[in-house]
Every structure is written in C-alpha cells, then in structure tokens.
Amino acid sequence: MADSGDGVNSTSSGKEPRSTLTDGPVTDPASNMKDSKSGALKKSSRYRSRSLSASSTDSYSSGSSSDEDDVSPREKIQKTEKGFTDFCVRNINQNAFGRREIEIAEQEMPGIMALRKRASDDKPLKNAKIVGCTHINAQTAVLIETLVELGAQVRWAACNIYSTQNEVAAALAYAGYPVFAWRGETEEDFWWCIDKCVAAENWQPNMILDDGGDATHLMLKKYNAMFKMIQGIVEESVTGVHRLYQLSKAGKLSVPAMNVNDSVTKTKFDNLYSCRESIIDSLKRSTDIMFGGKQVVICGYGEVGKGCCQALKGLGCIVYITEIDPICALQASMDGFRVVKLNEVIRNIDIVITATGNKNVVTREHMDKMKNGCVVCNMGHSNTEIDVNSLRTPDLTWEKVRSQVDHVIWPDGKRIILLAEGRLVNLSCSSIPSFVVSITAATQALALIELFNAPPGRYKSDVYLLPKKMDEYVASLHLPTFDAHLTELTDEQAKYMGLNKAGPFKPNYYRY
Ligand SMILES: NC(=O)c1ccc[n+]([C@@H]2O[C@H](COP(=O)([O-])OP(=O)(O)OC[C@H]3O[C@@H](n4cnc5c(N)ncnc54)[C@H](O)[C@@H]3O)[C@@H](O)[C@H]2O)c1
C-alpha cells in the first residue's frame, strides 16, 4: 500500500505482523489506557492490512486536512442526519465517498455478496451481537454489512491504528453502525475504541470477530463476566490464533473459537494466488523494473514462494530457488527451477525475494556480494528474513528514493535497492485483490454462523477449524464468477468413492 512508510507495516518486534495485530504480547488494555505513548506497539503490520488498497490509503481520507487531523475524533461532536451519535470516526461528512468505495469493493467480492443474498431471508445471525475488531476498509465494510443483513447487531473497532479508511468508517457510521475507528489512533484511542464496542448500554455481546486477538484479550481481562457469556470467537490472524491455542492450553478459554487463518480457502488463496499477483505489482510500482530475462532468486518454495515463482517465470525471469526441505526442493526442480544455495548465485542476481517465514535468510554477507542495483525484498510474515539491521552500519549510506524504497550504498558506490525495509513488500507497496478478501470474509461469516447456530455440545471450549464442507461452500460461492461448472457425482460414483454427493469431497488431511 502506498502509505509512505508511516509504519502501517512495520513491526517493532520483528515478528508476525500480518493481518494481524501487534507482534508482541498485547499490552494490558487497562495499563495502556494510563500509560499510552505514541502507539508504537501497534506499528506492526498485519496480514489483514492486506485488504487495504493502495488507492484507498492514498485517497480521500489521507487527503484530509491536517488541521482536522489535529483534533481527536474523541473531542468532536458528530451526528448523522438521522440523529445517530453512537460512533467515533474522523469525519462523518466523508461518508458519501466511503460508500462509493464500498460499492466498488462489492463488485469484486462475489462470494460474500452471494452469501448475503442467499442467507438474507433466513437471517442466520438473528440475535447475534458481534463485537468486531478488524481492519476497517472497503472490503471489511462489505463483510460488516453482510453480517448485519444476516441479522446480526454489530459494534466495530479497528485492529490496527493506521489501517482505517476514514471515509469507509464514516460511511458505516452514517448507515447507523456503531463504528469506533480512524486512521492514526493513539495506543490509548485504540483500546478506548475497542472498549466502546465491548461495553455499551443495553449491550451484551455474544460473538467476537477478531483479527489479532485484541477484542478477545480486552474482554477476557477487563470484562470477564461478559466474556463468559460469549458463544463463540472467530479469529483470523496467525498471532490471534496462536494466542487462542495458548489460552486453550492454559485452560483459560471458556468459549469455542474458530481458527479461520488455517482454513484451506484462506491459506491457499491468500498465500499462493494473492502473492502470485501482488509480487509483480509490488516490484513494478516501487522500482519500474522490467522482468524479462532478469535473474531472480526466491528463498522458500512454499505456497508464497510458488506463487511468486509462477508469476516471475511467466514474465520471462530466470528463477532460482533456495530451500531447506527436500520435498519442496524436488517440487521446485520438477517445476523447472534450479535449486541452489544463495551463495552460489548471489553475485549475478537482479532480484532477491524471501518467502520462508524464517529469519536471517539473507545476511549482510550475501548483501555484500550482491551486484549493483540488486533489488531485495521480503514476502514472508516477518521483517527478520532479511537482516536489515546489519545494513545499519556507518560504512553504508541509506538514501530514501521513494516511499518504501531505499538505496543502500556501499563505500565503492555499489547500491542495493531495499524495499519496505524488509517488511512484507506486497502489503507495503501493493494492493490486495478484493476477490481474495471475499474468500476470507465469506469464511469468517460462515464461521460466525456455524458457532452461533451450533447445537450445545458440538463445540467445546477449544479452537476449531471450520468444517471442510464449509470451506467447500466458500469456494463454491466464488465459482459463478468464472462460469465454472462442477461435475456431480453419480450415485454409483459416490458409492464407489465412499463419498456423500454433497461433500465433503476430501478427507481433512488432504493437502490440495
Ligand atoms: N506476503 C503475503 O501476502 C503473505 C501471504 C501469506 C503468507 N505469508 C507469509 O509468507 C511466509 C511463507 O508462507 P508459506 O505459506 O509459503 O509457508 P510455507 O511453510 O508453505 O513455505 C515456506 C518455505 O520456506 C522454506 N524455508 C524455511 N527456511 C528456509 C531457509 N532458511 N532457506 C530456504 N527456504 C527455507 C520451508 O521449507 C518452506 O518450504 C510465511 O511467513 C507466511 O506467513 C505472506
């Protein structure tokens, strides 16, 4: 996203940002409210910030006057034409622009829109009272409005202090939803906003939709009695899911939770297909590079690496792979890529991309050997894949040439082009296709419906994956876009395969 390095995607601890929330443990909300500093804790990137589009961050909200930005939305008295005041956004007058952004997103989110249409009569979320804490942008607005259409009442806060599209938040508030979010919240604002969503008059939430675990954390810590009344938590981020598993292990999770992050429909589409598109976009936008004939090394041939390789090979790059895992190395070989050690090729490489989820994959030693003009970037979750800190030495000069683009210059004049200071390059320099967000949003909505409607006893106080049949349903919601026609099993075939004709079609251990 073209947010000009304001820190949306930086991660202070260098751990998982993604979509996600804070990298480190969440600071206790109560103490945050007292001791808030500059919001540095929230300067982590999150995968879900993937749903921000560059155009949206560059657009209207970021163009709002600085005078206006100087006044905290908490100090403003705002109301809609209908007299609605239960919200706190930057500027309610931006609502029309936000509405247009939401309508554009709806066009590219066929799955969640189809779900909205199919289930709007049944209202499967009637009586659901959802506390939501996600990025607030055009795509998540489509999810929020779908949940309401399906019968839910919602109160919503942002899971990241930088990622809110102010005009979208205004459009949601204008439509009458209690939304508490603006771009550039302080750490204290951040917790205040979530608090406003949890604790309100005549409001006992019964579901949580979290992206990073912060709403869950606040409720668990500060409103424990309320937390015990929750029927289910749906969590999207790696970090939030990790915390839920920790809570469960410690016996502190008193409600069932769905791990949406590890749904097949999310992992495959987010990691492989989305990265396949966004790697090219990120590199083009930041460097204007021509790909044909360029030598590229991709570290890691997992889902993300495979997506990057496909895209770059398609544009005529000569692609090398590094891998630690012989299975992935064999896959890369069979796909026609040379598997090498980084040191073997590094002197001739034009572009280095890390996609391992590991640390120090590209070291100072490697960067010392790179040729002039080599582009270095990271697609993995953590900003530790490239040892960027090792470049902060007195002998090297840093020159910011564009937003998210630094030239690091050696004493002999050699320069490498470092993108997004080693943070996720696609989240920092590109946009995420709404279509991919549609898949995740549909998965989240179904997880809420499943937990909310499950008969007592189906789910215990533990962390679950969405049933495979629902993953299949999410996929099926997106097929009409492609006019894809599924073959139906005959009775004979179903019997032969031991399958139900309506699915699920694969065992849980199937890898796709
Ligand atoms: N940029 C994005 O939009 C985006 C989207 C999804 C996931 N991710 C992140 O990208 C990373 C990769 O995700 P994935 O789904 O491909 O994971 P994965 O586990 O499928 O693939 C990672 C691969 O890296 C290999 N690897 C580990 N250490 C290595 C090393 N030192 N050198 C070479 N190879 C090494 C592993 O063997 C594995 O095959 C993760 O950190 C994930 O969170 C990013």
What does this structure look like?
- The protein has 512 residues and is of the alpha/beta class.
- It is built from 20 helices and 15 strands.
- α5 packs parallel to α18, α12 packs across α13 and α18 packs antiparallel against α19.
- The longest helix has 24 residues.
- The two termini are 30 Å apart.
- The N terminus is likely disordered.
- The site of nicotinamide-adenine-dinucleotide (NAD) has 28 residues, from α12 and α13.
Throw out a few tags for this protein.
seven-stranded parallel sheet, eight-stranded mixed sheet, alpha/beta, binds nicotinamide-adenine-dinucleotide, disordered N terminus, about 10% strand, single chain, about 500 residues
Bound molecules: nicotinamide-adenine-dinucleotide
The termini sit apart by 30 Å
- Helicity, in percent? 25-40%
Number of strands: 15
- Backbone CA Rg: 23 Å
Q: Beta-strand percentage?
A: 5-15%
* Number of continuous helical runs: 20
Mean pLDDT: 88
| Spatial strand arrangement across the major sheet | 9-8-7-10-11-14-13-12
Largest sheet: 8 strands, mixed
Segments where pLDDT lies below 50 for 5+ residues? 1-65
**Rough shape?**
globular
Q: Structural class, from helix and strand content?
A: alpha/beta
Helix-strand blueprint:
Layout: H1 29-35, H2 54-58, H3 66-70, H4 95-107, H5 110-119, E1 129-134, H6 138-149, E2 153-158, H7 166-174, E3 179-180, H8 187-198, E4 207-210, H9 214-222, H10 224-228, E5 232-235, H11 238-249, E6 257-259, H12 264-287, E7 295-299, H13 303-314, E8 318-322, H14 326-334, E9 338-339, H15 342-345, E10 351-354, H16 364-369, E11 375-378, E12 397-402, E13 405-409, E14 415-419, H17 425-429, H18 434-453, E15 463-465, H19 468-478, H20 491-497
Parallel strand pairs: 1-2, 1-4, 2-3, 4-5, 5-6, 6-15, 7-8, 7-10, 8-9, 10-11, 11-14
Antiparallel strand pairs: 12-13, 13-14
Helix pairs in contact: 1-8, 4-6, 4-7, 5-6, 5-18, 5-19, 6-18, 8-9, 12-13, 12-18, 18-19
Bound molecules: nicotinamide-adenine-dinucleotide.
Residues 18, 50, 270-271, 274-275, 299-305, 322-325, 328, 355-358, 361, 379-381, 424, 426 line the site of nicotinamide-adenine-dinucleotide.
Pathway: Amino-acid biosynthesis; L-homocysteine biosynthesis; L-homocysteine from S-adenosyl-L-homocysteine: step 1/1
Family: Belongs to the adenosylhomocysteinase family.
InterPro entries: Adenosylhomocyst_ase-like_sf, Adenosylhomocysteinase-like, Ado_hCys_hydrolase_NAD-bd, NAD(P)-bd_dom_sf, S-Ado-L-homoCys_hydrolase_CS
